[in-house]
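[worker-b] picked up task from shared queue
[worker-b] task type: protein-ligand structure
[worker-b] ligand name resolved to uracil; SMILES cross-checked against name lookup, match
[worker-b] sequence length check passed
[worker-b] input payload:
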Amino acid sequence: MRLHVADHPLVAHKLTVLRDKNTPSATFRQLVDELVTLLAYEATRDVRIEPHEIETPVTTTTGVKLSDPNPIVIPILRAGLGMLDGMTRLLPTAEVGFLGLQRDETTYEAVTYANRLPDDLTDRQVFLLDPMLATGGTLVAAIDYVLQRGARDVTCVCLLAAPEGLEVVEQAVGERVDVQVVVASVDERLNEKKYIVPGLGDAGDRLYGIV
Ligand SMILES: O=P(O)(O)OC[C@H]1O[C@H](OP(=O)(O)OP(=O)(O)O)[C@H](O)[C@@H]1O
Ligand SMILES: O=c1cc[nH]c(=O)[nH]1
Ligand SMILES: [Mg+2]
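[worker-b] inference finished, payload out:
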C-alpha cells in the first residue's frame, strides 16, 4: 500500500474549518467538495494516458488523452457521495459506480446494503471515495469488493485516516495489488467509540444531517 498525505496550506486551512463543530452543513459540504478537488489532483497523478495527435492553429503536435476505458469512480455511500462532484470535476469522463456500506456502531463491522457497479473491473483504474478511514473495516470491504471483480489498480481518496485503520488496510492488502491511499491528514488515534481523534465527527451526519 502506498500512502500519500497532501501537504498544502490550503488543505490544512480548509480541513481546520471542516473540523470545527460550529461549521454548518452547507459550508461543510462546500469544503468537502473543495478539498476533494485538491486531493484529486494528487490522486490522479498515475491516471493512464496515451499519445494523442491534434492540430493546433499552427501545426500538428502529439499530446495525450486519457486511455480507454476511462477510470471508474466509486463513492462509498453515504458520506462518500459528498466527494463525488469534486472528483468528477477533474475526471469528467469517468464512469461512476456506487457502493453502500454502513459501519455497525456496536461491532464496528461494515455491512453492505447496496451496490451498482460493473461486474467486470478488469483493467479498470478504480477510485474509491470515503471521507473517513477509521478502523479500516469499511475501506477493506470496499477494496475486497472491487478486487473480486478484477480490479488491480485502486486509489482510495479519504479526508482523514486513523493510524490504526491505515495499518488494517496495509495488512489486508499487503503486496497483492497496487493500492494507493491519498489523505488530507493522518490524525492521532481512534477513541473508545472508534471515532477519529481529533477528527470531525460523523461525516455522513455532518454532510446530510439525517442519522
Ligand atoms: O473505517 P471504519 O471504522 O469502517 O469507519 C469509516 C466509515 O464510517 C463512516 O460511514 P458510516 O458507517 O457512518 O455510514 P454513513 O456514510 O452512511 O454515515 C465513514 O464514511 C466510513 O464509511
Ligand atoms: O470519526 C469517524 C469514524 C467513522 N465514521 C465517521 O464518520 N467518523
Ligand atoms: Mg456515518
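[worker-b] attaching auto-annotations
[worker-b] The radius of gyration is 17 Å.
[worker-b] releasing lock
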